[in-house]
Every structure is written in C-alpha cells, then in structure tokens.
C-alpha cells in the first residue's frame, strides 16, 4: 500500500515560512499560490 500524499508538491508560505502541500482546489493555479491559508494571505 502506497501513500500518495507523500508525492504531492510542496511550497513554503511567503508569510509564515511554513511548508504546505498541493491541494485539489489549487489545481488550476498552483504556480500562483504563495500562501498556505487565507489568514496568511490577508496578513501579507
């Protein structure tokens, strides 16, 4: 049994510096995603 979540791309949040993984809702604009959450995006 393999864990597919381990193979997802990851980025570092531009605000808090924590790593975050790809999510299905970001499928169409993953290159533009810079923040891990709405809270980090609003506090930029």
What descriptive keywords fit this protein?
44 residues, alpha+beta, two-stranded antiparallel sheet, UCP037205, DUF2256 domain-containing protein
Could you characterize the architecture of this molecule?
The protein has 44 residues and is α+β, with helices and mostly antiparallel strands. It has one domain (4-42). Helices cover 11% and strands 14% of the residues. A two-stranded antiparallel ribbon has the order 1-2. A hairpin with a 6-residue loop joins strand 1 and strand 2. InterPro entries: UCP037205 (IPR017136).
What's a concise summary of this model?
This protein is α+β, with helices and mostly antiparallel strands and 44 residues long.
Question: What's the topology here?
Answer:
Elements: E1 10-12, E2 19-21, H1 38-42
Antiparallel strand pairs: 1-2
């Amino acid at each position: 049994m393999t864990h597919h979540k381990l193979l997802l791309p990851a980025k570092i949040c531009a605000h808090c510096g924590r790593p975050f993984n790809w999510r299905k809702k970001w499928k169409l604009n993953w290159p533009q995603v810079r923040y891990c959450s709405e809270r980090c995006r609003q506090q930029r």
